[in-house]
Design a protein that fits this description.
400 residues; alpha/beta; 34% helix; single chain
């Protein structure tokens, strides 16, 4: 699909997913690392819990289908080498502070991933993935209201920004091809993380009012509506919705009533016009509590599979919460061809998610495993016209 596109990825944790998406779509992605290896090689977990530059499972998970070179970009010769490689490239991806944005003037589509916006008050802030998530406001809506926020145990902002940067880079490439001039694109990790909150409102608190923990959904008639319910084999998401999706709640209520876990009047209610359709706040609170209590009881005696079957039959919103073992065995993912066998060091293999999308005229395949350190340096430099003597000189001086 992108087999005519060459990408230079100045490898950082924030860029790895960007490069992988483009590589999976067929682009020739070259991960550029410092001579000591990219930071992604030092990210846990490690194969057999044994640390090493070739043993990071994060590196192997997010760098398949790429080639890799080492290049000391802190040296003049290293920067000159990158500019020479850029002459045959289409896209360059890096993180802030940008050092090669000027290459857009030479015709590249340049994409920079930043923790915050380039010109905002936090543009020069130090950051971690967790502080970016906190700054996005998403954490205010996670967990219970009377407790500390819950954070996803993997680098969420990094992943959100990586996916958005792939879109931004391709958009810049399309604009470059259309207009005939280089393009600059930027992605804020904070803004990308905010997108994971979908339609939740964000606002500033003025006059130094002490902030309070928010909720993912405003209370209706004074009732806080849960999203997740315990079932016999874990947890399931059940969405109580109103307005345009109120018909789904009515079908859900009918399912709960038919099971004997709620009074009949909740199935006859116009949930699209709720709470006005209930008459007054007291009646609305009673009916809503009856539905929530019924869902809690019914979920508690059901499995995730049974609830999923009921949701498909009665057409309401439900989704199981899957752990990694359940994801690996989920038959729908297998039927969609998600998995492929990926090589690891020492001749090991792992079943990994590869085909994130299916196309009518292209198939995402695992063409090569994650690259070893400097695994393609000589090959890539030779393609750029460097002689064997020149490559040896760069190596002797620690440039590659």
């Amino acid at each position: 699909m992108l087999n005519a596109v060459r990408v230079l990825e100045l490898s950082q944790p924030q860029t790895m997913l960007t490069g992988q998406i483009l590589a999976d779509l067929g682009a020739d992605v070259i991960a550029v690392e410092p001579p000591g290896g990219a930071p992604g090689r030092r990210m846990p977990p490690f194969l057999d819990d044994c640390i090493g530059l070739e043993r990071s499972l994060v590196w192997h998970a997010m760098n398949r289908n790429k080639r890799a070179i080492t290049l000391d970009l802190d040296s003049p010769d290293g920067r000159d080498t990158l500019r020479r490689l850029a002459e045959a490239a289409d896209i360059l991806i890096e993180t802030a502070p940008s050092r090669f944005e000027a290459l857009a003037d030479a015709g590249l589509a340049h994409c920079c991933v930043r923790p915050f916006s380039a010109d905002g008050p936090k543009s020069r802030y130090a950051f971690t993935d967790r502080t970016v998530i906190a700054a996005s406001g998403v954490a205010a809506y996670t967990g219970n209201r009377d407790r500390a926020p819950l954070f996803i145990p993997v680098p969420q902002a990094m992943m959100e920004a990586g996916a958005e940067a792939a879109i931004a880079a391709l958009a810049a490439l399309c604009a470059r091809d259309r207009d005939g001039v280089g393009q600059r694109a930027g992605v804020s990790m904070r803004a990308a993380a905010m997108m994971s909150a979908l339609s939740l409102p964000y606002f500033s608190i003025a006059n130094d009012t002490a902030p309070t923990r928010g909720l993912a959904r405003k209370p209706i008639a004074g009732v806080e509506i849960p999203s997740f319910y315990a079932c016999r084999d874990g947890f399931v998401l059940l969405s109580i919705t109103f307005g345009a999706f109120g018909a789904m709640t009515r079908r859900m209520a009918a399912w709960v009533v038919a099971s004997g876990h709620a009074p009949p009047d909740i199935a006859d209610l116009d949930w699209s016009a709720f709470p006005a359709s209930a008459g007054d706040d007291a009646q609305a609170a009673r009916l809503l509590c009856a539905l929530i209590d019924g869902l809690t009881a019914l979920a508690g005696e059901s499995t995730k599979d049974l609830i999923g079957r009921a949701a498909r039959e009665h057409q309401f919103f439900a989704a199981p919460l899957l752990d990694m073992a359940e994801v690996a065995s989920f038959e729908q993912y297998a039927a969609r061809g998600l998995w492929a066998t990926q090589p690891l060091p020492e001749g090991r293999q792992v079943r990994a998610p590869v085909r994130f999308a299916r196309f009518s005229d292209y198939s995402i395949e695992l063409r090569r495993p994650a690259p070893p350190l400097s695994g393609h340096t000589q090959e890539v430099l030779a393609e750029a016209g460097y002689s064997g003597t020149e490559i040896q000189a760069l190596f002797a001086h620690g440039i590659v």
